Amino acid sequence: MIEFCGNCQTGADTHEEYPGACPFYKKAPDKHCANHEPLRYKPADGRMVYIASPLRGDIEGNLRKAVAYCRAATEAGVIPIAPHLYFSAFLDDRKPDERAEGMAMGLHALRRCDELWVFGEPSEGMRAEIQLAKSLNIPILYIPEETARQIVRRNGTEGG
């Protein structure tokens, strides 16, 4: 996430890189002035929302559900990021090494998102995504199982 000084909106990584840029600069232990606040959303961009939903088990059915969740997110005005939708095109989730590679790439993508939306009961992989989001203070929206089912029915992607 691009961070800015909460007072002067200067995106310097350190005060030393742009000395005197912030008239409100105060010594602080981290890389911004003591008045610094990260922007909640990136300016001039749509919010990027990471879509967490199960993949294991009924892979084809779960991918159809992920499509419905992404459609609902788009209708809500955000940019959905669902790595399991496109990683499954070239990685096989049933192969442990490819699953691990996909999970690692997904977690990397999550670091660039503004929010995490969790659809239904969290699976093992989803729990790792939730844990990372919490550690990065990324807002998490939990969508209950019944709401997730309604989204799938509404978007006509249930059962093939």
Give the secondary structure arrangement, pairings included.
Blueprint: E1 48-52, H1 59-75, E2 79-81, H2 83-87, H3 96-110, E3 115-119, H4 124-135, E4 140-143, H5 145-154
Parallel strand pairs: 1-2, 1-3, 3-4
Helix pairs in contact: 1-5, 3-4
General description of the model:
With 160 residues, the chain is an alpha/beta fold. The protein folds into 2 domains: 1-39, no CATH class; 48-154, Rossmann fold, CATH 3.40.50. 37% of the residues lie in helices and 11% in strands. The chain has 5 helices and 4 strands. The chain has helices spanning 59-75, 83-87, 96-110, 124-135, 145-154, and strands spanning 48-52, 79-81, 115-119, 140-143. Strands 2-1-3-4 form a 4-stranded parallel β-sheet, sandwiched between helices. β1 (48-52), α1 (59-75) and β2 form a beta-alpha-beta unit. α1 crosses α5. The longest helix is centred in the middle third of the chain and has 17 residues, at 59-75. The chain is globular, with a radius of gyration of 19 Å. The two termini are 38 Å apart.
Which tags fit this structure?
160 residues; Rossmann fold; alpha/beta; globular; disordered N terminus; 4-stranded parallel β-sheet; 2 domains
